[in-house]
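Q&A log
Question type: sequence-to-structure
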Amino acid sequence: MSQITTCTFFKLESFSNKLWALSQMQLGHAHFKKIEGLVFYKLLGSGAENGFSSKPNFGTYALLCIWESEMNATAFFEKNSFFIKYKSKSAESFTVFAHAAEAHGKWDGKQPFISTASLEIDKPIMVLTRASIRLSKLISFWRKVGNVSKSLEDYDGLALSIGVGEWPLIQQATLSIWKTQAEMIDYAYKNKKHLEVVRLTRKLNWYKEELFARFIPYKFLGQWKGKNVANFLDI
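Response status: OK
Response body:
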């Protein structure tokens, strides 16, 4: 068996369903006890921008899971009553299955991802960037990071990017899917706004904890914005 990571995004439309999803950020944890094969999970809210955002989006939520095997993940998605209820309340949802290729840093004091895949320069890649921001650095961080989120909109190689987080303002993450690793690298190392934030991150010591991981996405279920996510990738 090989560890896999899944991330499911849910889009809620009615006020009652949005309110229910918001409540599950706390109440939902009760449903994740003793799930076979589940190694790590996070219930995540989202921001209104492509990347880190101080503006909440009460219509989009995410569930990130690490599984011992795809078999365990499939059993959860097909049979778990909480997941099935969440999907029934969602106007749209999609799940990406991926193998970790690289992971650096920690999440809640541990490194949960086991790297089992090799990246290919001309193949799709999924990137997770997560940070816990120091309270004393919140103002300087949010003054700078918004421009980077906006700069993502100009890249044709970006198939999808959603800013998510455990707590507004303080614990933030971006999950992005790119058509190829080459296009992701072009953004990461040539975009001036992104490079400036990377420089300031080291200089100003914004984060008390951070994690960066790259994955090979290999399967998509569901749809987003009326399309199968694989169609965004042309695969």
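Response note: The mean pLDDT is 87.
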